[in-house]
Amino acid sequence: MTDFIRIGEYQLRNLLHNRVKFLFLDLSVESTVPEFARELLIGSRKVSASDVMECVRQSGSAFDAPIVLICENGAKSVAAAQELARNSFINVFVVDGGIQALEF
């Protein structure tokens, strides 16, 4: 059993296109984001992996509010999602494979 849900590019684009309200956190290092991916990240909050919990708390997000995490390859997002789950957040989503998996 996982404490978060993995989503792909299609699901992420649907969330963005339908303007679903969620906290979108970008854990990637700015210099590693390809130009073609920057448009998809508009509206995300840039945060370091070590500051995810603090960012979520400062946002005032409820424990059941949707939170979407993305990073370069998914590894930092998975670790952050596990930390959020340990702290009782229940609607945490990780973009599977991160920015590298996006097909554009």
Report on the structure:
This protein is α/β, with parallel strands linked by helices and 104 residues long. The chain has a single domain, classed as Oxidized Rhodanese, domain 1. The protein contains 4 helices and 5 strands; from the N terminus they run βαβαβαβαβ. Strands 1-5-4-2-3 form a 5-stranded parallel β-sheet. Strand 2, helix 2 and strand 3 form a beta-alpha-beta unit. The longest helix has 12 residues. It is globular, with a radius of gyration of 12 Å. The protein starts with a strand and ends in a 9-residue tail after the last strand.
Give the CATH H-level superfamily.
Rhodanese-like domain
How far is it from the N-terminal to the C-terminal residue, by CA? 31 Å
Number of domains: 1
Radius of gyration, Cα only, in angstroms?
A: 12 Å
Q: According to CATH, what is the class?
A: Alpha Beta
How many extended strands?
5
CATH architecture: 3-Layer(aba) Sandwich
- Give the biggest sheet: 5 strands, parallel
- Helices, by number, come to 4
Strand order of the largest sheet: 1-5-4-2-3
CATH topology: Oxidized Rhodanese, domain 1
Percent of residues in helices comes to 25-40%
Derived structural class? alpha/beta
Summarize this structure briefly.
The chain is an alpha/beta fold. The chain has 4 helices and 5 strands.
Give the helices and strands, then pairings:
Blueprint: E1 5-7, H1 9-17, E2 23-26, H2 35-38, E3 45-46, H3 52-59, E4 67-70, H4 75-86, E5 92-95
Parallel strand pairs: 1-5, 2-3, 2-4, 4-5
